[in-house]
Amino acid sequence: MNVTPKRYQGDARDSVLEIFRYACKQIDEALDQQSRLAASAYNGCVLIQAPTGAGKTLIAGMVAEDFSKETNIVWLWFTPFAGLVEQARIAIKYDFQGLRVRDITCERIVRGTRSGDVFVTTWASVAASRKDAKRIRRDGDESVSLDHFLEQLRASGFKVGVLVDEAHHTFSTGTEAVKFYREVLMPEFTLMITATPDDQDAENFRKSSGIVKMHRITVSRLDAVEAKLIKGGIKSVAYIAGDQHRDLVDFGLAALTDGVRVHQSIKAQLAAEGIDMVPLMLVQVDSSEKSVAKAKKDLMNLGIREDAIAVYTSREPDDELLAVARDESREVLIFKMAVALGFDAPRAFTLVSMRGAHDRDFGVQIVGRILRVDRRLQGRQVSDLLKYGYVFLADAEKQTGLTGAADKINAIRTEMSAISPFTMLVTIAGQTSVQVVQNGQPSMLANPWEAPAIPEWKAGEDSAVPPQTTTQDLLAGFILPPVNTPNTIATGTEPYPSSPQPPPGQQQYLLRDGVPRVFKTERLNLNTSGLLQCVEKRIKFDDNPLCQYK
User: Fold this and answer.
1) CA dist list (Å): 27 to 38, 161, 451, 480, 500
2) Least packed by Cβ within 10 Å: which of 80, 182, 239, 324?
3) In this structure, which long-range contacts are made by residues 29-37, counting pairs with CB atoms below 8 Å and at least 24 apart in sequence?
4) Other C-beta atoms lying within 10 Å of the C-beta of residue 64
5) 117-122 and 100-102 as β-strands: parallel, antiparallel, unpaired?
6) CA-to-CA distance for 45 and 411, rounded, in angstroms?
7) % residues pLDDT > 90 (the chain)
């Protein structure tokens, strides 16, 4: 193989191989089919759970490569989406010389097949209620059907191994994928890899597929962090306001403004440290019709060139998305995917999310895109700015005011603590507090919410000035270096690159379109002498009216 594995990756590989070798010895020595099936059912299935970016694909490839040297076996490698097939093929060809990638659409021929051959495909391409509905399950002039091909492989002395990437998106009881797995594939060995296992789904699959024991190997997040394959954590900024203020502020624009500022600082820091890499900023917009156009317009107004912005709106990743992630002429990727699953974007540091509905997949899969460490940074000493991922949550439409503020913060914590410990800077009506999540346990909301004072408008202000609202600088001292405080990077005496930072109390965000800049105000004169004189002229005070109340 072309990659030197980290220690924990090698340990995981060795653990899987130990289990498979035990089953393989029993299969080879068994005299009847039922005994071979039993050996597979007890020791032929392993689930690897590892954080996004920890190298699950590398571990799986190492297992397949090494095991193929010990027994005659052909592998079927399943990805959740068609767009990820090519990504898997490239990874196998680049990293594993002992494996040979075959084309399942036209190379289903036993003659010439050798141990370590890998066919990469999706469940959708093979599983159906009628096998004739899938082309690769029909006999052709050049290749036999997949069903017959598997029978011929076994007749020629090959075992069948199955590798399932993102296994949590594959199996549930009664699906055609499970039926195909049990009735057609009937693999002697199954290796499943996932970042977000669902214990109930795993148990359902175990029962419905006839597996007695599913061995589980877990890779800790700390191992991946210490190996510098994933970032140390996430720093997140949430924008929250009460019901009476949420319609005034453009939360999306506020999040984009801060996101662009951090993105530009990261770009400058990479250049200052001599790292030839252009960082990527991810912008996840909501499902509304004009969300992409608005995000693109706002980004251009914030100084991002139009040709540096890419847009991707398909519901599944494909080759175009993977190409954009690698194209360093693009600095921002706007996307709409409900589940950003599996695509590699290791140069991504910053994520701005406009989506209102967040679930666990948001934390583990989408945020997982910015946790990976690019190979150009692995093994290097870098500044603190480059050690974290940064998330800006603009969820204005789902704000529930004061009563829901604490629940919202806790929900965000729950999503993100699934992948990393993190510190979150929470802004509630101009009041900020840094809250830390450790071991998945959030603390309570630090400060009660109080409505901010409405700034007083003075006559004579320039009406041409864009509508603005002012908050304190959220980033200085939390993500970026404190204002007017010298800082140095970890590797020497070079200071952080200078970036335009307004002083505390002067951070500005644009208001929503159509919101009036000023409102009519009625003021009470504090000098009441004129009022008293007016009362004296209009009301006669003598003993007559006063006597009436005696």
Assistant:
1) 9, 13, 71, 59, 67
2) 182
3) 36/188, 37/210
4) 24
5) parallel
6) 34
7) 25
What number of other Cβ atoms are within 10 A of residue 46's Cβ? Answer: 25
Euclidean distance between CA atoms 400 and 398, whole angstroms: 6
Eight-state DSSP code of residue 389: E
Using alpha carbons, select from 42, 33, 39, 73 the residue that is nearest to residue 159.
73
The predicted structure's pLDDT at residue 66: 96
Q: Is the dihedral of CA 223, 375, 320, 370 positive or negative?
A: positive
Give the type of residue at 498. Answer: S
pLDDT per position as a tens digit, 421-449: 444 444 455 554 444 444 444 344 443 33
- Going by C-alpha positions, the residue among 118, 112, 68, 109 that lies closest to residue 91 is 118
Within its chain, how far is the Cα of 245 from the centroid? 30
Q: Quick one: CA dihedral 84, 90, 92, 98, positive or negative?
A: positive
Name all contacts of 173-182 with Cβ < 8 Å and 24+ positions apart.
Answer: 173/204, 173/205, 173/207, 173/208, 174/208, 175/127, 176/123, 176/127, 176/128, 176/129, 177/123, 177/127, 178/205, 178/208, 178/209, 179/127, 180/123, 180/126, 180/127, 181/209, 182/208, 182/209, 182/210
Q: Which residues of 376-393 are buried (b: 16+ CB within 10 A; e: fewer)?
A: ebeeeebbebbbbbbbbb
Q: Is 44 exposed, middle or buried (0-12, 13-18, 19+ CB in 10 A)?
A: buried
| Closest by CA position to 21, among listed 47, 44, 49, 46 | 44
- Phi, psi at 73, each rounded to 5°: -150, 140
In sequence order, which ranges of 273-342 are alpha helices (DSSP H)? 291-301, 319-326
**Is the pLDDT reported for residue 465 higher than 50?**
no
Give the residue with greater pLDDT, 235 vs 452: 235
What letter represents residue 189's amino acid? F
* CB-based contact 471:477 (threshold 8 Å): no
